Amino acid sequence: TSAHRPAAIRTTCGYCGVGCALDVVTAGGEVTAVLPARDGPVNRGHACVKGRFAHGYLTSPERLTRPLLRRDGGLEPVSWEEALGHVARGLRAAVADGGADAVAAISSARATNEENYLVQKFMRTAIGTNNVDNCSRLCHSPSAAGLTASFGLSGGTDCFDDVERSDCVLVVGANPVEAHPVVGARLLQRVLRGARLVVADPRAVGLALHADVHLRPRPGTNVALFHGLAHLLLAEGLADENFLRERATGLPELIALLDDYPPHRVAEITGVPAEDLVAAARLYGRARQPAIVYGLGVTEHLHGTDGVRSLANLAILRGAVGTDRGYGVNPLRGQNNVQGASDMGALPDLLPGYGKVTDPTARARAEAVWGVPVPGRPGLRIPEMFAAARAGGLRALWVIGEDVCATDPDSDRVAAALDACPLVVCNELFLSETARHADVVLPVTSWLEKDGTFVNFDRRFQRVRPAVPPPGEARSDFDVVHALADAMGTDLGCPTPADTLAECGQVAPVFAGLSHDRLDREGAVPWPCPDPGRPGKAKLYEERFATPDGRAHLTAAPYLPPGEQPDDAYPLVLVTGRRWAHYNSGSMTRRGGNLALDPVDFLDLHPDDALRYGVRDGARLTVESRHGQARLVARISEQTAPGQVFCSFHFPSNGVNRLTSDHGDTVTSCPEYKVTAVRVSAP
Ligand code: SF4
């Protein structure tokens, strides 16, 4: 029982977006154990190898403990005063030379809500630009755009506790067994107790082994797949006509479009046999309470927003969203606080709470709290920041806790952008690939050393509490933003993280009912939560959708091919993703015991392709795309379909993102990580 547990600090996991509550045991200022909280709202006594064991990085001798400043080509330790003075002078010079829009910041899904709020406030009020973005641009920006267009709000529609009660779950483009293991385990448990499972993923991901139907579409053909399922729901009389009449719009246009997506045509486009498509449609269509859970396999495409919206069509057709007849459409967020970073307005077009910067009413609400005008022109998205830097228009870039040179696509061009920018400032734990290109590197704290809140994948705010002191002179991003504002002669207000969340509630009424005190008492509270005396909304849209007309909006976007196609020169399709023991660029999980669990990354390829290209298991391969080259070790695996190869992005030294393209979602610019044409050659 918890009575037998050692005294511990309760916090929220800083790895994936599940948001497991963890009890951190310490001794002598160091973490000695991380225990999954038995009363954790999401994890209920469970955690994965990342949350439990990947904390060795905290005491790594490679941790940055002093600010670094570039002099004579090298990075040298300096005082905070000198580093911040240099940055403040550089920012002032950039604004003087090119105006406020010559400065940009990439905020962080790893940082707390309060830190993200403060970063966007600094950029909008101290600098005077909307050039602030976060890494949701690279993962779930199509979810925000697609779910907002379909339903009105950018978050998932339901609480995972409800999703887990579903009698049929459609898991699309996600590998929760490895990437979100606590969710994967809870889904698997539900399936073992009788729920039906449809998995749609090109790879034989862990859950596919337990699926009633596994659809394996060619990468880049999701929209056709979803339209094929929608066609069958209508053709087989499985749509909810009352719901469609009373609560949805766009049906005639969708019906007209779906004439072009009969099973045989969808089979041609996607490679999914028509009978599998029919079986999947019947399972989802006949379930009493179907649910959809999806991941980056839906979003990271040239038409990722169309993918989200055409997937949402299925829930609308079934009346399985905003009703007691299903559990909607629920994105699995990759990073711990990618939902929160966007909720806090670290976006170039949206203020905290998703008011548009182009909307005078939304701006006026922020201006009333901040006391200064808010610029009304949307700022640059991350890929646009790099393009502007290469073109000479961006004169200062602040990168907070993101290793963009490792994780962003076409990474050689990202590095070139940083090298072209006169001032690059980097908040980091380690001398990352990005920090190596910076002019100033500021040592900051990790999630186990921070105070604030995160928002998990089903919109729950939870507290983050410092368990151990920071190493050396490292400071929280919160303190760094304040110190830089001070150096610029600006008072940002918000003296503490608790004050910051309170101010955020003034700017964004949707968060007005949240506070650190309340979270300390209640553990987890979902947004929308406008009232401190009432619970947050776990299930959305029970009364009406949040669209202007109160209805769910079906989309009739046609299938369009991906930006990359294999050909004779580049015959294989590379898909990138995550593996179980590591996390994103691996900067934390590779510095500790998890490296022994998964010491090297592989390029997985199917036995047929291994035979065709003369590749032995374990061979060192040269992998080339139209954008760059990488060296990877081959692993022959039937998990990957013929004609496709798979690799994670956890080992930047492999250079896998030298291969990926700069094709981006036509609506949000989210990179097309899931479709890159490559060729392999063995020595
Ligand atoms: Fe939970 Fe995700 Fe952390 Fe694992 S990485 S412990 S699943 S929040």
TrEMBL record:
Source domain of life: Bacteria
Record carries keyword Iron: yes
Residue span, 4Fe-4S Mo/W bis-MGD-type domain: 6-62
Keywords attached to this entry: 2Fe-2S, 4Fe-4S, Iron, Iron-sulfur, Metal-binding, Quinone, Repeat, Ubiquinone
Biological processes per GO annotation: ATP synthesis coupled electron transport; formate metabolic process
GO function terms (MF aspect): 2 iron, 2 sulfur cluster binding; 4 iron, 4 sulfur cluster binding; formate dehydrogenase (NAD+) activity; metal ion binding; molybdopterin cofactor binding; NADH dehydrogenase (ubiquinone) activity; NADH dehydrogenase activity; quinone binding
Co-factor requirement: [2Fe-2S] cluster
A single Gene Ontology CC term: membrane
Function of the protein: NDH-1 shuttles electrons from NADH, via FMN and iron-sulfur (Fe-S) centers, to quinones in the respiratory chain. The immediate electron acceptor for the enzyme in this species is believed to be ubiquinone. Couples the redox reaction to proton translocation (for every two electrons transferred, four hydrogen ions are translocated across the cytoplasmic membrane), and thus conserves the redox energy in a proton gradient.
Protein family according to the UniProt entry: In the C-terminal section; belongs to the prokaryotic molybdopterin-containing oxidoreductase family.
Name of the protein this chain belongs to: Formate dehydrogenase subunit alpha
